[in-house]
């Protein structure tokens, strides 16, 4: 409790006019009230209705076990338009050789748990808490959270998961992992190609990374991103 108090106090000192601390079942504030880093609100709950509402309105949870529940809507927003996917020559060779086998929604739990376990440069611990694993597992049962599995010799060597807003033709990528060189990239490219066939308009990548940019992702304004969701700030 003391750690939570100190964290909230720090945020309040940094942004005294923009801090929104949600009570259970309380609605999100207007997205335009997110701070410069994209932090919109703190607290609330991880109920299925809240998560569904959040993703349909350009909001996503991102926090670690030492923090309270944090909700974000950054500006700009990193997205990938399927037509702009970049596939390098080396990746094209891997596809020609059929280096990996890709499946969809075959083992969601294994994918999200692997994403939580993988250690990443500059990251201490994981934001994929047990609460996240359980809640997204429930969303998978509702056919809202989807996974991509990448296999090599019957071993799961890579994958990713995210939220599929099928009615809005938007896929919200959450996390990926790899245990073999280029496995997660192979799965991501396979997913984008499949989503393009399904008429998906864009893949939400949330925030900038050089890796995503190399695959063709780009930053757009939050307002433009929200327009694809048919909502406003």
UniProtKB/TrEMBL annotation:
It is found in: Cytoplasm. The keyword Transferase applies. Its EC number is 2.3.2.6. The keyword Kinase does not apply. Gene3D superfamilies: Leucyl/phenylalanyl-tRNA-protein transferase, C-terminal domain, Leucyl/phenylalanyl-tRNA-protein transferase, N-terminal domain. Keywords: Acyltransferase, Cytoplasm, Transferase. It catalyses: N-terminal L-arginyl-[protein] + L-leucyl-tRNA(Leu) = N-terminal L-leucyl-L-arginyl-[protein] + tRNA(Leu) + H(+); L-phenylalanyl-tRNA(Phe) + an N-terminal L-alpha-aminoacyl-[protein] = an N-terminal L-phenylalanyl-L-alpha-aminoacyl-[protein] + tRNA(Phe); N-terminal L-lysyl-[protein] + L-leucyl-tRNA(Leu) = N-terminal L-leucyl-L-lysyl-[protein] + tRNA(Leu) + H(+). Pfam families: Leu_Phe_trans (PF03588). GO terms for biological process: protein catabolic process. It comes from the Bacteria. It is an enzyme of class 2 (transferase). One of its GO terms (cellular component) is cytoplasm. One of its GO terms (molecular function) is leucyl-tRNA--protein transferase activity. Functions in the N-end rule pathway of protein degradation where it conjugates Leu, Phe and, less efficiently, Met from aminoacyl-tRNAs to the N-termini of proteins containing an N-terminal arginine or lysine. Belongs to the L/F-transferase family. This is Leucyl/phenylalanyl-tRNA--protein transferase. It comes from Salegentibacter salegens.
């Amino acid at each position: 409790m003391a750690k939570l108090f100190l964290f909230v106090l720090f945020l309040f000192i940094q942004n005294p006019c923009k801090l929104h601390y949600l009570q259970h079942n309380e609605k999100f504030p207007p997205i335009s009230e997110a701070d410069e880093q994209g932090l919109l609100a703190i607290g609330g709950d991880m109920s299925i209705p809240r998560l569904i509402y959040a993703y349909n309105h350009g909001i996503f949870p991102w926090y670690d076990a030492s923090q309270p529940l944090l909700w974000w809507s950054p500006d700009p927003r990193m997205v990938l338009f399927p037509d702009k996917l970049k596939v390098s020559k080396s990746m094209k060779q891997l596809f020609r050789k059929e280096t990996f086998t890709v499946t969809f929604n075959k083992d969601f739990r294994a994918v999200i748990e692997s994403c939580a376990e993988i250690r990443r440069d500059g990251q201490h611990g994981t934001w994929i808490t047990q609460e996240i694993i359980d809640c997204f597992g429930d969303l998978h049962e509702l056919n809202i959270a989807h996974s991509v599995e990448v296999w090599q010799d019957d071993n799961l060597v890579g994958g990713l998961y995210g939220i599929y807003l099928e009615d809005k033709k938007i896929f919200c990528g959450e996390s990926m992992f790899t245990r073999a060189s280029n496995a997660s990239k192979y799965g991501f490219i396979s997913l984008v190609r499949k989503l393009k066939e399904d008429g998906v308009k864009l893949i939400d990548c949330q925030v900038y990374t050089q890796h995503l940019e190399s695959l063709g992702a780009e930053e757009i304004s939050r307002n433009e991103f929200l327009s694809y969701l048919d909502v406003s700030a």
